[in-house]
Amino acid sequence: MKIGVILPSIETQAAQKLDIATAARHAEQLGLSGVWHGDHLATGAPTLDVAVALAAAAAVTERIHIGTSVFVPALRPLAWAAEQIAGLQCLSAGRLLLGVGSGGGPAQWAAAEIPYEERGPRTDTALRLLPALLSGARVTLPDARGRAELELAPSVPVPPIWVGNHSAPARRRAALLGDGWFPSLIQPAQVATGLAEITELAARHQRPAPTVTVGATGVLGAGTDLPTRVEIAAGITGAYGRSLEETLSIPITGSLAEAAERIAAYQGTGAHHLVFGIAGGDWRNQCELLARAQAALT
């Protein structure tokens, strides 16, 4: 299994004297598979634009993947979303992994001046049209005032498109419109059940089974400065409105052997990648432990 890491937040960068470029180089030197960044608007927390952050990471690395966890194309005009994706694919020389979602609360969509109820249809349209747009084909874009034709230049190889979330609409999109499925913060049994459903639906439509990438969080090792599993689970509960009973088993914590065992459980469901959000401690050191956990799986 390949393991990637979420790039440090602005708060972590400030506290640990760490910038995006240094973090990306560190992850690459350790042999991690990718560096990832989310796409957030009006969250109340300071954050970098996803394209800016990943462009910085791409510019200082050579081998490591850069990934969106996840990009929300429906927040933008589709032509602009395609241009951002093409720019990242070009700058990274084809190293982009494109996680796509339709998430975020109503405040994010209000800030983008897009009705919250339109997020699903706009995401479906983006998933249908982005591959042709990125490849340089002339595409007719839907528009409330008519229809516009666009031919993106420069064209780029279409990156793998992995549909985020584990909701029923997301599973449908992964089966019918994506190359992969990218659920986060769920248990291995849920991954296995969801993958079986998606694989069956894809087969009915004569599409290949999607790859699976799992988003996870936690801290590795021991120390009084590290948050506990309960504390991390409580954070998930507060952020997503889920019960503590449901989230308590989600954080990956403990020794390297314990972490590798937890990650191997996801690998056993058929997942090929794991994207890890570091929940505390020294970011550089946590990356080193992640790289050792990755090596233990190969």
Automatic annotation (TrEMBL):
Listed InterPro entries: F420-G6PD/mer, Luciferase-like_dom, Luciferase-like_sf
Q: Name one Pfam family in it.
A: Bac_luciferase
Keyword Oxidoreductase part of the UniProt annotation: yes
Keywords carried by this UniProt record: Oxidoreductase
Residue intervals of the Luciferase-like domain = 17-219
Q: What is this protein called?
A: LLM class flavin-dependent oxidoreductase
Lineage of producing organism: Bacteria, Bacillati, Actinomycetota, Actinomycetes, Mycobacteriales
